[in-house]
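Sat 14:20. Reprocessing the chain from the morning session after the first attempt stalled halfway. Input below, unchanged.
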Amino acid sequence: MTVSSGEGFDPRALAARLSGLEKSGEKAPTADFVLPATLREAMDAQNFLAAEERISTHAWKVAMSPVGEPVLAPLHPYFEAVSGASISWRPGMKFEAEVAVRLGQDLPVRQNGDYTRDEIVEVIAECHLGAELLASSIVESGQVSFLLYLAERIGNKGYVLGPALPKSIIDTIGNTTLKVTHGEQVIYDALARHPKDDVLVWLLAYANDKLRPHTSLKKGALITTGTLCGAIELTSRGPIEIVLGNETRLSLSIV
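Finished this time. Tokens:
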């Protein structure tokens, strides 16, 4: 039976268990874990996992918990497509095309008042096309315990940063075509569509989280903002090509 933090939760132990499963390629059901009961406990475990995996990055993903709490996780392994990118396939792996933004200045925690969307736009120095790969060592992923999934870095198993996009894409992405090919198969061909219809929703929410670390959202940080095509399962290895707006292309290999 699954137990929660009141019954002996240890963030270091959870991090070690998740790291061990990742290295072995095995999975375990949610019921086999002692679960974090709070966002803080989940983030403590995530931080220990990042240390266990020796993750040092300025690239992050933002998301929202089922109860509306903004969350953050490091992107690892991280590649830039201009240097070539190959990510190892694993059963159940999923793909997301995304827009990433790089901050041109710090977004310090604001104890009085909130950032506006316009202020977030103002501090964005660059926009890029990107690709995120997702997989989980938890049988149910985050369907049973989102906090456990958060400890596992919200399922991130790799990120590829592609070419620059005009900053206007922040406001026009919903009117932009997106085509994704995996091997010889077209797996998405429609308008790009963010789950919240605005790629800045989760970044804005995280920026306004009064409890986030003061070391977060620093100048130079790269933030990926959420899928534009849903989470598409990749049933095999093979090359992926993303074409956004008939002009911007990003290629990577799943090996």
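The CA atoms of residues 88 and 255 lie 5 Å apart.
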